[in-house]
Write a structure and sequence with these properties.
Length: 817
């Protein structure tokens, strides 16, 4: 009986032993904490697959002290690799008898090793403790194709496999980063780990383009300690942008170096794009508002030459040097010609003054004084100033005209050279200097000689013949090609430009067989007075018509001028004949003969500023083989038109009277009433009675229909009548400078002193004991009255200033709307 009971008891023990050790559930019998683990719910785990390892931690500590800060540390093995890293945490606090279960994703590499060390580290009271246990995961199917039994662990054995656990990093940003030249660009990046393996020691290094950024930091890379699987990290780069960086979209390569949890190194390259905008204008020095005192210089007289040195760019000009070359007609009194400025800010100016003396026996005329400038961005800048000298002789003038214009009197074959010539004559009474002649013929007619000719001087009545050689290209068409000659010269301080047009008939190679069988008419020469026509004004058109045939005359010729472009407002033609029609009649024109016609025309006021093409339609008869035939052909030429600049300004508003020593505000409004944009608009005050150095207001470009408000504060220093003027200077579309002045007068008086309204005793002294001394203890009524008066005046001035500024803001707001 006892033997049977013993056998049964032993069988039960064997069954319990087989159940415990054949299962994947392991009990780690710790003294205070128990660990149990289940792999893949006891189902088969195949090689190269992920599975969940469920770990349960139970607190068996006696007492009320819980355990917390629980960490699970996996031992390094080549078979089982935790996706989240070898050290992972379990959230929560466990009191006596409580348990917590957490699933950890693992990767089975296919090796035959089944042992895995698990260490649980936790905080108990104020101390950290740990318990460790090795479990066997037997429900695995090893990879039989691996070629051997690799039982190495960690980063050693199986190193070829650990490199397969590569994190995959992607870089994103909410929008394309954008920065302005001269500022700082911020580049925020989000680095996402889209793989199932943690990335560590992530270093992002950008490759920056040249001449775009200013590197003022020791390193340009960013480092992220780790990025868990499925997580992301944010980094931010900041760089200063070169103020001269080109506006563009730049590609920035990013080198990304990182490691996996086994220390394998990886390198990726990504590309991002950034946008750089540049509204900066480089420093550009110009000389403006040059004047002499006195305005007209006598021979042997001392005078002051003053001008404003403007930086028309938005970037500062650094290390500015200004030098003066007075020429042979003047000399500097103190022999100091150079001025130095450390920097001139953008859109700001410096006033420069030189004291000079004119040499004796100078003749009347305008003499050149050269200003030489340089700064860090530019060198060898030269700007001419003109000084007017008035001698004892009478004032004279210069007038340059063209005469004896000669062009080929018959058609010229393609790729055959030809010559045009004319005389330059000075019909004025003063010698002309610095005459420049430039010819322009387009891209089908090429110059064979220099197309620019300079004549140093031309005495009154003297003429100089000039000629230019050309050749046409092979692909020309059979038609008349215009050639424009531009004559530029100085007339006092005025730069004069005149234009002379000539026409040459070119015959294409394909039309060579029929050359001159039909007489052809061309406009061999044309010009207008004025050379540049202003919209809304009359002008005179001079035309010369040439019969290019050598043998045939033409008869009953009608010439009609046609302009295809019309007014956008009225629909009428841009040019309208005045007291005549647009048709000419020529009875007969012999071979090689010319006929000149003159026509006065009116330009519509709303004509756009450009060159308008005028078509001349020729209809005529000629005789061939005893028969009378007709022919019709066309020729074209251009008439440049500009819109006159119209800046309307209101009268200057001044206070009356004004008090000496107190700020006085003057104002004026101005409007662009013309049809062209104004440029380099500057408003300032000029006066010899008060200081005007702080009165400049640079507007710059002033659009069509725009309006603005000018206000300046001045302080008067002398009583009586003070005179000044508001000066507007600007340039029109043709680059011509204009000046508008609005004079004003301010009557200044001394500020009236505060008068004591109670002479003698103050009312406060009534009833006071006459024997008492009132010197030290009496109330200071006089000072209270004076202070109150000053306070009232200050409040009145403040209200006036605030109202004027409010009005100006409303006007600017209306203009923006």
């Amino acid at each position: 009986m006892h033997s049977r009971q013993l056998k049964a008891f032993l069988m039960v023990l064997v069954m319990i032993f087989s159940f415990v050790f054949s299962s994947n559930t392991v009990l780690a019998e710790g003294e205070k904490v128990d660990i149990s683990a289940t792999a893949n719910n006891d189902e088969l785990i195949r090689a190269k697959e992920y599975f969940d390892l469920s770990i349960t931690v139970t607190n068996n500590n006696e007492g009320l002290i819980p355990i917390s800060n629980i960490e699970v540390i996996f031992g390094k093995t080549s078979s089982f690799i935790p996706s989240g890293g070898h050290v992972q945490t379990i959230e929560g606090t466990l009191y006596h008898g409580e348990s917590v279960t957490e699933d950890f994703e693992m990767f089975y590499s296919g090796e035959k090793e089944t042992a895995l060390m698990i260490t649980v580290r936790y905080k108990y009271g104020e101390q950290y403790q740990k318990v460790a246990k090795t479990i066997n995961i037997d429900n695995v199917a090893p990879d039989t194709s691996s070629g051997g039994d690799n039982t190495g662990g960690g980063d050693g054995g199986g190193g070829g496999l650990t490199s397969e656990f590569k994190p995959v990093l992607e870089i994103t940003s909410a929008a394309m980063p954008e920065g302005k030249a001269g500022g700082t660009i911020t580049i925020p990046l989000t680095i996402s780990n889209i793989a199932k393996y943690e990335a560590r020691e992530v270093r992002i290094t950008p490759t920056l383009p040249e001449n775009v950024f200013i590197i003022d930091q020791l390193t340009v890379y960013k480092v992220v300690d780790k990025i868990p699987a499925g997580k992301s990290a944010d980094v931010e780069f900041k760089f200063k942008i070169n103020e001269k960086a080109d506006e563009n979209i730049y590609k920035i390569p990013l080198q990304i170096k990182y490691k996996n949890i086994y220390g394998n190194d990886f390198t990726d390259t990504k590309e991002i794009y950034i946008k750089i905008t540049n509204n900066n204008l480089p420093a550009r020095l110009v000389v403006r508002d040059a004047k002499t005192n006195p305005e007209v210089i006598k021979p042997g007289e001392t005078f002051a030459l003053t001008f404003d040195l403007w930086n028309m760019g938005t970037l500062e000009a650094k290390n500015v040097t200004v030098d003066l070359n007075p020429g042979n007609e003047f000399f500097v009194l103190n022999n100091v010609t150079k001025n130095y400025f450390f920097e001139i800010n953008g859109l700001n100016n410096k006033e420069v003054t030189y004291n000079l003396k004119a040499k004796d026996k100078l003749e009347s005329g305008t003499y050149v004084v050269k200003v030489l400038m340089s700064h860090d961005g530019e060198t060898n800048l030269e700007y001419p100033l003109y000084v007017k000298v008035e001698g004892d002789e009478k004032e004279e003038n210069v007038d340059i005209v063209t005469e004896n214009v000669q062009t080929p009197n018959q058609a010229v074959l393609a790729e055959q050279p030809f010559t045009v010539s004319f005389d330059i004559k000075n019909t004025g009474t003063t010698e002309a200097e610095e005459i420049k002649v430039t010819v322009e013929a387009g891209d089908k007619i090429l110059p064979q000689s220099l197309n620019v000719l300079t004549i140093n001087g031309l005495k009154p009545g003297e003429s100089v013949p000039v000629s230019f050689s050309f050749i046409s290209t092979k692909d020309v068409e059979s038609k008349v090609y215009p050639i424009k000659a531009v004559i530029e010269y100085k007339k006092g301080e005025e730069q004069v430009k005149k234009e002379q047009y000539m026409g040459v008939l070119i015959e294409a190679e394909k039309d060579k067989q029929t050359l001159n069988t039909v007489p052809k008419i061309i406009i061999s020469e044309y010009s207008s007075d004025p050379a540049v026509v202003k919209a809304g004004e009359n002008f005179t058109l001079y035309m010369t018509f040439l019969n290019t045939s050598k043998v045939k005359a033409v008869e009953n010729m009608k010439i009609t001028l046609v302009v295809n472009e019309t007014s956008e407002e009225t629909g009428g033609s841009v040019f309208t004949p005045v007291q005549s029609s647009n048709t000419f009649y020529i009875d007969r024109l012999e071979p090689g003969e010319t006929s000149q016609k003159t026509l006065v025309m009116y330009t519509i006021p709303d004509a756009k500023a450009k060159t308008y093409v005028v078509t001349a339609v020729f209809e005529y008869e000629y005789e061939e083989n005893g028969e009378l035939k007709t022919n019709k052909m066309e020729d074209v030429f251009g008439i440049p038109v500009i819109q006159p600049a119209k800046l309307e300004v209101t009268d200057v508003i001044v206070p009356d009277p004004a008090y000496i020593g107190e700020p006085v505000y003057i104002s004026s409004e101005f409007y662009n009433m013309g049809r062209v944009k104004l440029s380099k608009l500057m408003v300032r005050i000029e006066s010899e009675d008060f200081d005007t150095r702080e009165s400049n207001y640079f507007v710059g470009n002033f659009d069509i229909g725009a309006s603005d408000y000018y206000e300046a504060s001045i302080t008067l220093t002398k009583p009586g009548e003070n005179r000044g003027k508001v000066v507007y200077t600007f340039e029109d579309a043709a680059g011509e400078e204009h000046r508008i002045e609005k004079e004003f007068t301010i009557n200044a008086i001394e500020a009236e002193p505060v008068i004591n309204p109670f002479p003698g005793d103050f009312p406060g002294d009534m009833g006071k004991d006459p024997n008492m001394s009132g010197g030290k203890n009496s109330f200071p009524f006089v000072w209270v009255a004076v202070g109150g008066g000053v306070l009232v005046i200050g409040v009145i001035v403040l209200v006036i200033v605030l109202r004027k500024r409010k009005k100006r803001k409303e006007l600017m707001l209306d203009e923006d709307i």
